[in-house]
Model the fold of this input.
Amino acid sequence: MQRFKNFIRGEWVEPKSGKYFLNINPANTEDIIGEFPESGKEDVDDAVQAAKEAFKKWRLVPAPKRGEIIKRAGDIFARRKEEIARIMTREMGKPVFETRGDIQEAIDTAYYAASETRRLFGYNTPSELPNKANLSFRVPIGVVGVITAFNFPIAVPSWKILPAIAAGNTVVFKPSKDVPHSGVVFAEVLEEAGLPPGVFNVVLGKGYMGNMLVEHPDVKVIGFTGSTEVGKKLGEICGRLNKRISLEMGGKNPLIVMPDANMELALDGVIWGAFGTTGQRCTATSRLILHKDIYEKFIELLVDRTKKLRLGDGLNPNVDVGPVIHEQQLLTCEEYVKIGLEEGAKLVCGGKRATDGDLAKGYFFEPTIFIDVTSEMRLFKEEIFGPILSVIKAESLEHAIELANAVDYGLSSSIYTTNINDAFIAIRDIEAGITYINAPTIGAEAHMPFGGVKGTGNGHREGGWTVFDIFTEWKTVYIDYSNRLQRAQIDNY
Done:
């Protein structure tokens, strides 16, 4: 069995404890991917110290030169695209056509971040005093701790790691314990791209390591993607330590279908939004809000399409939906089915583990649909992170938007309509960081801001130009060439 190592100071090193954990293929629990370090505080300290030392020189490298290395990383991701896609599918389950998209997102992010190193613009404005110039610059902050979830093992880390490095910071990356191999691959790519030792470090292990990174006094910024429950706890710690943290947390995303919508297009969107990545996306379509005039007919078509989805090992090109990530997530899905039935929702599709043939070897759950869900039910309110879709009836557009907003989350949203007036009302009134028109709730692009409101985030936006607000500080500079004391507002008025 292959044994993997941490990546610290440009070297592959064993954990100080000498302990390892097994990484298991969720589509086939008989397939052991390898042994991965069960790291602890000493390993985290070593990685942070390496990043702290490397920052002294890395921050002084001209930004476009940093961009050249990030660009090479994008080229390497592109060259290894098929190989890494298959590694991710084996590790976390989603079909290989999806993991190819995961890698492409990292490629796009690399090229975009590389280009932004020539556009880290500041603002220069006139002074209120004569013979004086006012300037501002973006400057790097220091060591960044990156903590991410399992569902996008390369794409989501790339949103944080590559801009952070491009901006002149150094990084310690703690990937999810469910996808450590992807963390190793990320280090391999950046090492080959020529990143100096210590600029990027990977420490593998269980969830408790996240707190070690967050609480470390030499880690200046935290980039976190994960559950709202964990994110809030990390936010409390960072508040106490006066430390910047970017939180990208849960979602309970609504997709509205109006009577004038293209029904086939809407069906395609619901199927992809609800059951892509087996529903394990923060942007997954977990609530389908149907106008009353199409409610019955749309459900009939939806159930028919859903029952035709093919479950199985994501490395099989004929598979539509892979497994959930582990046994605990299977139990969570089963628990929510039980909750839904107890609350009075009607189960019309799926609702149980899939155990036929080879499916019995993995963590497979049937794509599941509940109808007649109401806003008081837990199915309506709580993130499940599995292939369970709740369908709600709306009396009007206004009612549909009211239902869309009636949860604690606000990440993504969607409406299918051919009425431009309704579309713009939805854009204006839906409480979400992202709104799609005639597209599902998933499909973010690397050059646009990504993030949500309410319980989904804390105001930061990854992706696009806005991600550099997370990983840089503003420095204001006043240059007085008057050759005399000018006391700003005192002498000016």
Summary: The chain has a mean pLDDT of 97.
